[in-house]
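[job 4471] stage=fold_predict status=RUNNING
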Amino acid sequence: MISGIYSFNQIVEDIIIETGQTNLRNRLSEIRKLVARAEREISPFTGFLVKKKMLYIVGNGNFDGTNIKKPHDFVFTDKVGCCEDGLCDGAYHETTSHIIICDKKVRTEIRFTYWGLQSDGQGNPVTSYNHADAVVAFCIWKLYSSKIFTGEGSLNVMMQYEQQWENRCGEARGEDMFPDENSMHNIYKVNSWSSLEMANKTSYDRCISCDNCTPIINDNPLTMANNMRVYYWQLNNIYQDQNTVIPTVTPAFLAEQNNEPFASFQTGFLVAHPYIGRLNLAVMETEFVQYKIFDILNNDVTDEFTAHYFQDTKIMLYTSKNVYSHSNINFKITL
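[job 4471] inference complete, writing structure tokens
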């Protein structure tokens, strides 16, 4: 699902339009927390949440050897990551603002892994267009529900707001997995193919994976590159593009990314993208080659990527021009 970024200001404006309450300045902190809760309800570990690691050093103002001050974008600790960092369950205690280490070890520094919010650079959370209606509905429901405890609200009205949220939440989850308009158009074209056309357009895929096929002549130079692999990852910052990616792409960096043999991408590989950001595909140990990239319907989507070749390390990098919301998509790479 390709989706744009919906800012925090847009969320607040929508709440004002829907409720008529123009003075929300004193409730902005509450709305920020509600946006995070809404995203977690729509889908845990959505593109809204990013796994981050911070290095805390005694004397920098947020770590005194025992107490870690939570970052402003903190949502919850990463259990696996924290255990690797020396913060296993039982070794620390959480408060609203701090994490207190209880194992009595002497530390001058510690790495801390947590799940944080995607933000606009000013600490305000953002969401995607396909989640916006659901997030706004959740905020309205929760903002109104507090009136029930003060006797100012109506239980029936609150239940209607809750139903609106549940409806919008279901729609958001469905849209996460639904094709965009271009893909839908291509699906319609596929459905209009005759049986003969369908067989002609898909038979080559079956032949590639056929166990009984014994090619006599193969002039595709890619089949000789048995050691070639395709590395793939997604930017977890919505403002990053290829200009910010290029300085970081090294063989050591790629070694830490997900990767598959080139042959997997020749037949088609399902790439998962868990965040809201651009996708990257990189081929190592290759000469300057203009590869072709196709989607699951065999549409040439090469123009939707920006290419860059690293002459010294022989790495071919492709960065998507589109920002993708969390989902997955099948890509095929050929000459």
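[job 4471] summary: Confidence is low (pLDDT under 50) at residues 201-225.
[job 4471] exit 0
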